[in-house]
Amino acid sequence: MSEHTLVIIKPDVVEAGNAGKVLARYEEAGLTIESMELREITGEFADQHYAEHLERDFYPPLREFMTSGPLIPLILSGEDAIARVRALNGATDPKKAEAGTIRADFGESGPRNAVHASDSPESAAREIALWFNR
After folding, report:
1. pLDDT of residue 75
2. 71 secondary structure, DSSP code
3. If you ran DSSP here, which 8-state letter would residue 53 be given?
4. Partners of residue 14 on adjacent β-strands
5. Contacts 24+ apart (CB under 8 A), 50-53
6. Domain that holds residue 101
7. What is the largest CA-CA distance in the chain?
8. Which residues are marked as active site?
9. How distant is the alpha carbon of residue 122 from its chain centre?
10. How far apart (Å, rounded) are the C-alpha atoms in residues 107 and 124?
11. Dihedral sign computed on CA atoms, order 92, 4, 122, 87
C-alpha cells in the first residue's frame, strides 16, 4: 500500500553539500519525491512542527538549530514509505545508528542528526499539511 511521509533534510546536511547524497538514497530505495523545496523557517514555525516537544529539555537547541539555515522539506511516497524511510534514516542518535544509514553517515549528534521523518501516518498527514498546505 502506497503512503506518503514527510522528510526534512536538516541544515547541517544542506550546509555540508550532502543533500543530493541523502536524496539519492531515498530514490535508490524506490521512493518517489512528490514535493520538495529549499527554505528557511522561523522559530514560530519550528514550534508548530515540534509542538509535542516544546516543554522537553532538548527542544531549545533543536529549535535554534532548525532555524540556523536552509533546510529541505520533502514528501516521499511509496509502499510502506514511513517504515522504509525510518529504516533508511537509522536511529535518532547518529552514534547509535546502524552503519550505512543516513544518520550514521551524515549525522553528528543531538539535533544535528541529518534528517527528520514522520513517525506515523497521523504525524505524516499533520506535517505534510503544515509544510506543504496539503
Report:
1. 98
2. B
3. G
4. none
5. none
6. 2-132
7. 37
8. 116
9. 16
10. 22
11. negative
As for how many domains the chain has, the answer is 1
All cell numbers assigned to 110: 543531538
- Where in the chain does DSSP place strands (E)? 2-9, 32-36, 72-79, 115-117
CA neighbours closer than 13 Å in the CB half-sphere of residue 127: 24
pLDDT at 112: 94
Tell me how far apart the alpha carbons of residues 65 and 18 are, in angstroms, rounded to a whole number. Answer: 17
CATH number of the domain to which 127 belongs: 3.30.70.141
Q: What number of H helices and E strands is found in the chain?
A: 7, 4
107: cell is: 549525522
**Looking at this protein, which amino acid is placed at residue 99?**
A
**pLDDT at 110 (0 to 100):** 80
Task: Using DSSP, state whether 9 is helix, strand or coil.
Answer: strand
Tens-digit pLDDT profile for the chain (134 aa)? 799 999 999 999 999 999 999 999 999 999 999 999 999 999 999 999 999 999 999 999 999 999 999 999 999 999 999 999 999 999 999 999 999 999 999 999 888 999 999 999 999 999 999 999 88
Predicted TM-score of the model (pTM) = 0.96
Q: In 106-128, which positions are buried (b, 16+ CB within 10 angstroms) versus exposed (e)?
A: bbeeebbbbbbbbeeeeebbbbb
